[in-house]
């Protein structure tokens, strides 16, 4: 589990925003056609995230000594997320890898921005450090 997630909240109720309508339809279709028992777009059963695709993930730690623990938590979350997202569209003639997703690790005054890439056989992570 991570501490925070910035999510997309698509709605079919906004005809002036066709992208939001298409995204909402896609999310509902993927959940409805999933063979997995979990009725959620994400890999969590947490109700507020069921129909809200994750855009950014944030893990926070109070001191820099627990940075390694935060990295492990982010890695486990990313692996589960990539597995869940890659399950959508199985059986189609063409499949797409999960999108690149930014993940943040905040320890005390140090912010790490990580970008994950699903390379098929592994998840690669590119790091960028920011100082406050």
Task: Report on this structure.
The longest helix is centred in the middle third of the chain and has 20 residues. The radius of gyration is 16 Å and the shape is globular. It has one domain. It starts with a strand and ends with a strand. The mean pLDDT is 82. It contains 2 helices and 5 strands, in the order E-H-E-H-E-E-E.
Question: Topology of this structure?
Answer:
Layout: E1 4-7, H1 18-33, E2 54-61, H2 67-86, E3 101-107, E4 110-118, E5 123-131
Parallel strand pairs: 2-3
Antiparallel strand pairs: 1-2, 3-4, 4-5
Pfam family, one: PDDEXK_12
Domain PD-(D/E)XK nuclease-like: 1-116
Protein name: PD-(D/E)XK nuclease-like domain-containing protein
In short:
With 132 residues, the protein is an alpha+beta fold. The chain has helices spanning 18-33, 67-86, and strands at residues 4-7, 54-61, 101-107, 110-118, 123-131. It has 2 helices and 5 strands; from the N terminus they run βαβαβββ.
Helix fraction bin: 25-40%
Number of domains: 1
Q: Count the DSSP helices.
A: 2
The 3D shape can be described as: globular
Order of helices and strands: EHEHEEE
Got a strand count? 5
Q: Work out the radius of gyration.
A: 16 Å
Provide the structure class. Answer: alpha+beta
Major sheet: arrangement of strands: 1-2-3-4-5
Main beta sheet: 5 strands, mixed
Low-confidence stretches: none
Mean pLDDT: 82
How far apart are the termini?
A: 25 Å
In what range is the share of β-strand residues? Answer: 25-35%
């Amino acid at each position: 589990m991570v501490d925070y997630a910035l999510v997309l909240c698509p709605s079919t109720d906004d005809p002036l925003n066709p992208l939001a309508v298409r995204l909402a339809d896609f999310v509902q279709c993927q959940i409805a056609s999933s063979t997995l028992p979990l009725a959620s777009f994400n890999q969590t059963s947490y109700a507020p995230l069921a129909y809200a695709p994750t855009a950014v993930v944030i893990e926070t730690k109070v001191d820099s000594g627990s940075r390694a623990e935060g990295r492990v938590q982010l890695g486990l979350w990313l692996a589960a997320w990539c597995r869940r997202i890659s399950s959508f569209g199985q059986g189609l003639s063409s499949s797409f890898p999960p999108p690149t997703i930014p993940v943040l690790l905040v320890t005390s005054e140090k912010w790490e921005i990580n970008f994950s890439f699903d390379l098929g056989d592994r998840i690669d992570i590119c790091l960028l450090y920011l100082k406050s």
